[in-house]
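Researcher: Please predict.
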Amino acid sequence: MAAVTEEILIEVPVERFYDVIVDYARYPEFVPGIKACRPREERAGIREVEYELDLGIKRIRYLLRHEELRPSRVAWSLVSGELMKVSNGSWELAPEGSRTRARYSVEVHLSKPPLVPQSVIDRVSDELTRVQLPRTLHAFKRRAEEG
């Protein structure tokens, strides 16, 4: 599956929105499907974060490496994980007066476990990118704008 990208305008300054993005421990409070999120030690703008995601058919755990460039960019890539072959993405942020233009990109590829049809894996991968993308964007927007 190719990467999917979408843009949204957030009614808060870029620094405030950036702070919402890097507050990983609070993701289970507002990000759809995230059941647990455990940030690890940060070093020189790099932070590894362990996630637990409910796919509906199964909960999976995975570890992402986040590269943080305050206040304009957060990018991530997969370190390890159950069922995950690829999980890459980024937030690109730009100020527009007192607002933030946010571009969110994500690419997810799942491994095919034995006895699971490829069509099921393709459907779940598609849901993670094309369906969850708008939900995730709007969840972050609500979180930032509501404070």
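Model: The beta strands are 4-10, 34-43, 46-54, 59-69, 73-81, 84-96, 99-110.
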